Amino acid sequence: MPLSTVRSACPYDCPDCCGLLVDTDGERVLAVRGDPEHGYSQGTLCGKLNGYERTVHAPGRILTPLLRDGEKGSGRFRPATWDEAVAAIASRWKEIVAAHGGEAILPYSYAGTMGLVQRNAGEAFFHRLGASRLDRTICTPAQNAGWDLVMGATPGPDPDEARESDMVVLWGVNAVATNVHFLARVHEARRRGARIWLVDTYRTPTAKLADEVVLVRPGSDGALALSMLHVLDAEGLTDSAFLGREVQGWEALRREVLPEHPPERGAALTGVPAERIRALARAYGRARAPFIRLGGGNSRYGNGAMTTRLLVCLPAAVGAWRKRGGGLLASTGTGQAFDLAPFTRPDLQPGPTRLVNMNRLGHALNELTGPRVMSLYVHTSNPAAVAPDQNAVLRGLARPDLFTVVHERFSTDTVRWADVVLPAPTMLETADLYRSYGQFFLQRTRPAIRPLGQALSNWDTFRLLAAAMGFDEPLFQQTADQVIDGLLAAPSPWREGIDRAALDEGRAVRLREPRDRWLTPSGRIEIENPRAAIPLPRWVPTHEEQGTLPLRLQTAPSVETLNSSFGEREELVRRRGPMALQVAPGEAAARGLADGQRVVAWNGLGEVELMLRVTDAVPPGVAVAEGVVWLDHAPGPRSINALTSQRLTDEGAGSTFYDNRIDVRAAPTTG
Ligand SMILES: Nc1nc2c(c(=O)[nH]1)N[C@H]1C(S)=C(S)[C@@H](COP(=O)(O)OP(=O)(O)OC[C@H]3O[C@@H](n4cnc5c(=O)[nH]c(N)nc54)[C@H](O)[C@@H]3O)O[C@H]1N2
Ligand SMILES: Nc1nc2c(c(=O)[nH]1)N[C@H]1C(S)=C(S)[C@@H](COP(=O)(O)OP(=O)(O)OC[C@H]3O[C@@H](n4cnc5c(=O)[nH]c(N)nc54)[C@H](O)[C@@H]3O)O[C@H]1N2
Ligand SMILES: [Mo]
Q1: How many CB atoms lie under 10 A from the CB of residue 546?
Q2: 572 lines ligand 1 (CB under 6 A)
Q3: In which residue ranges of the chain is pLDDT below 70?
């Protein structure tokens, strides 16, 4: 076959959603490059997507269905046909439904692909089955809830605007790892004279790019924002015209809450010196057009939604929204461009079914009754590695009476516990429709090559399962392309006037988000929200504020890999290095520990072996472990989520990956 080049999109859970050019010979992917014509990513890719042909054709790809052929968890499987695998699943599920009801079956999926079709492919099927529903809140629902309480459905600003800012604040975002194409905008702003600030809990790889670094005590950003607001108010740096016209509740906040938050109190709560808080507030208040890029970091705490609300008050206070180049970007909010209900079909549910929080999978598998979970169907996620409280999750997965199906591309930690494994494709083997949470482009993709081996897409798999279960809704007859046509046919103001021909050719086209007003019930920015459990935002402590162990654990993203994805790429795993715990020199010395030593990090939930890295980048009282590694790549039998809890956030029922305390000791010497 001659060489051909096909447009595609990066499907990973990342705000950039880059445009790809894929060279193939019709059978194999030869190279993956950035698409220079993509309006946001403009031809460059991160190290994970450059060389993506190595993921597509990785030696470990699962290429046929597999049936367990040994003890549960032994990792021994025998190849099977799709007919055999689907028949095994359907007959077991029919028994479970008859004996325990549909809710005894729990789907578990997240964001291995962000494509609207493949990511949501199981919804209609599980609704029809009457299965338990999964509350998909492992990422940043607390941030979304905090934004919504103040800004309603207002879309975020265009990341391109940051180029025109004179003060960019990277707040709780490790952009070198998680938002590289935004950094291109930041560099441009800096060339035009902007100062770059970074607010994080340690000196991340992104800190090198910042002019000013502010390190806060984990989970205390809400207190920092309150003291900044106090200073802005006290020093006349607020925009009273904007506040009077566009904002609800400012007077109540300044009267009832801000007096309690002078910078000295802020210093006590955040660990940032009062003078430094004043300097940050003054720089923010005096900037012509300050732009905050808010990452998920500060929302992964017991107070995550409240922290977000307080941070979202900052641009309102100084009127940043009305200045070109100013504002705050948490998420662009493009989810509103589509009504997915005709595809996810909540109406197919037989009646009200229970909702199971995905962060509490350990609880769901071990403790939940009425009915007990008897079957777990995992796709597009790797819960044995990414879900909190790994010991509870693994205990659940080991239950001999739990029937587990995993649809995957690689032998992940979750696959090991499966009874049936189904082979999944990469995005280059499927059709899908992509929108991004960090920019405003929409892209439709078609397969660049046929699925490898016997891999089947999520949607095609659920169509087979639907047939086997006797579900005859016409939706299950549709191809992914037909589903996409249906989604695009429903009108939305976001898609009015887009170039449909370009979209159908595979080019990224820009959505048209509504921008004429604040999309809140009052039509104003709601600093005070009468519908919220706490109408006026205020300081709320984290879960671990009163914790007793000495180190606050930050399980931050790794530059080289993405959540637990990319373990198949040797070169990336090598560059990432061994699973490490970074601590300050004083913390190591106090425990008699040295750089490069094998250590055990521990708390009430578990113990994890890591390599110690002693570094000034991490302040005292904090410990940092970057990346979620496969157990095969971990020094011991557990990875980092053995130390994170199933507790949820204040609003949004989100994960609290950063709100955990640990201590560390030397690992016993082996051998
Ligand atoms: N290379 C790479 N890219 C990724 C990912 C990855 O794992 N690797 N993950 C993807 C996913 S799923 C997501 S959701 C996004 C996440 O992307 P981000 O929003 O960048 O990541 P977070 O995990 O939310 O954490 C960001 C930063 O918040 C800091 N932080 C933690 N607690 C606090 C706090 O209390 N205050 C402040 N100010 N900072 C704090 C952490 O140290 C970290 O540097 O990235 C996506 N992209
Ligand atoms: N300690 C700690 N834990 C974390 C985080 C953290 O910062 N620290 N981050 C959390 C966050 S923000 C998130 S969003 C979650 C992410 O958790 P997950 O969404 O589970 O993300 P991944 O680890 O990337 O695993 C995705 C899996 O989907 C598979 N996959 C990809 N495409 C397809 C497909 O089309 N079909 C099927 N069937 N499978 C596919 C991939 O091979 C991969 O194994 O992790 C969370 N866990
Ligand atoms: Mo995420």
Answers
A1: 7
A2: no
A3: 1-2, 670-671
Sign of CA dihedral 604, 605, 609, 611: negative
Strand partners, 20: 8, 34
Task: Say if residue 166 is in the same domain as residue 219.
Answer: yes
Helix (H/G/I), strand (E/B), else coil: 192 = coil
The parent domain of residue 555 ranges over 551-666
Question: Chain-centre distance of CA 365, in angstroms?
Answer: 23
Structure tokens at 333: 């909010």
> Bridge-partner residues for 161, per DSSP?
none
**Per-residue H/E/C for 388-418:** CCHHHHHHHHCCCCCEEEEEECCCCCCHHHC
Is there a single domain that holds both residue 119 and residue 169? Answer: no
- What pLDDT was estimated at residue 516? 86
* Per-chain mean pLDDT for the chain: 97
Judge if 102 and 164 occupy the same domain: no
Q: Which residues surround ligand 3, an ion (CB under 5 A)?
A: 139
Regarding the beta carbon of 513 and ligand 1, being less than 6 Å apart is answered no
| Per-residue tokens: 246 | 């566009």
What CATH number is associated with residue 261?
A: 3.40.228.10
Span from the CA of 110 to the centroid of ligand 2 (angstroms): 6
Could you tell me the pTM of the whole model?
0.98
Cβ-defined contacts of 261-264 (< 8 Å, 24+):
261/223, 261/226, 261/227, 261/229, 261/230, 261/539, 262/227, 262/230, 263/227, 263/230, 263/231
Q: Are strands 598-602 and 607-614 parallel, antiparallel or unpaired?
A: antiparallel
* Inside any domain, residue 120: yes
Same domain, 470 and 382: yes
User: From the alpha carbon of 640, which atom of ligand 2 is closest?
Assistant: 1
pLDDT at position 669: 82
Same-domain status, 104 and 170: no
Q: What is the dihedral of CA 114, 173, 546, 310, to 10 degrees?
A: -90
pLDDT number for residue 2: 62
pLDDT at 127: 98
What is the C-alpha to C-alpha distance for residues 255 and 244, in angstroms, rounded to an integer? 15
Residues 237 and 364 in one domain: no
- What tokens were used for 331? 């998420």
